[in-house]
Amino acid sequence: xxxxLKTRVREGWQDTLRDILAQAxxxxxxxxxxxxxxxxxxxxxxxxxxxxxxxxxxxxxxxLGACEPHHWESGFDMxxxxxxxxxxxxxxxxxxxxxxSFWLERFFTSEYCVDDVAxxxxxxxxxxxxxxxxxxxxxxxxxxxMRAGTVDCMRRNGLAVPGEGRIHLLMKPAMEDNDDAFxxxxxxxxxxxxxxxxxxxxxxxxxxxxxxxxxxxxVVHLATDHSGRPVVLLxxxxxxxxxxxxx
Length: 247
Known about the structure:
Elements: H1 2-6, H2 13-27, E1 31-35, E2 42-43, H3 45-58, H4 78-84, H5 89-104, H6 110-113, E3 117-118, H7 122-131, E4 135-143, H8 147-157, E5 167-172, H9 179-193, E6 195-201, H10 204-213, E7 218-222, E8 238-240
Parallel strand pairs: 1-4, 1-6, 4-5, 6-7, 7-8
Antiparallel strand pairs: 2-3
């Protein structure tokens, strides 16, 4: 499903990013731009690879101890990553449940999210948004327990950091809160900042929700990877591969 969505990227997608920045400059502090984090501004594969390596070392599965980010063709397919690291299909299946439990204890923590790396052009684009004077709102399904690691990772990767100017970081109160419900609740908070003119997300469900709630906004889908839910993106949504838009 993720690979299919990558085919939505059309020639001239860079114009959409340039037009959004131009609109933000014209509106200044009245404008709001919302950004998801995982698989939108950040590539989580280094975090995923670290966890799988540690699992391999803890369980003495030698091949997994050599797992690298490129083994994760999708940021969400652990079975596929294990096979890419050298396990047979049967071996991957045999280790999957234990690996999944090991992953759950680590992935949603500040200690591990610091390993994420910025998507191409993401850092420069967030600073370009901040320079317009608009509100930049990071709206993420990460929970508050990950705030410190998230901000550290933003700083290390050169992104615009919450607390500076009109930059906000909206996070779920608790890990068990539903991502979809939280993001819909966050829509109301965005309206308090000003007029949402653009939203960026890799998840089709969340991108569609933005467009339905803010029909006047430009919604941009990051054609990286996603959870795999069979959701069709609305036609008006533009897909982009990354944020490097200068020719």
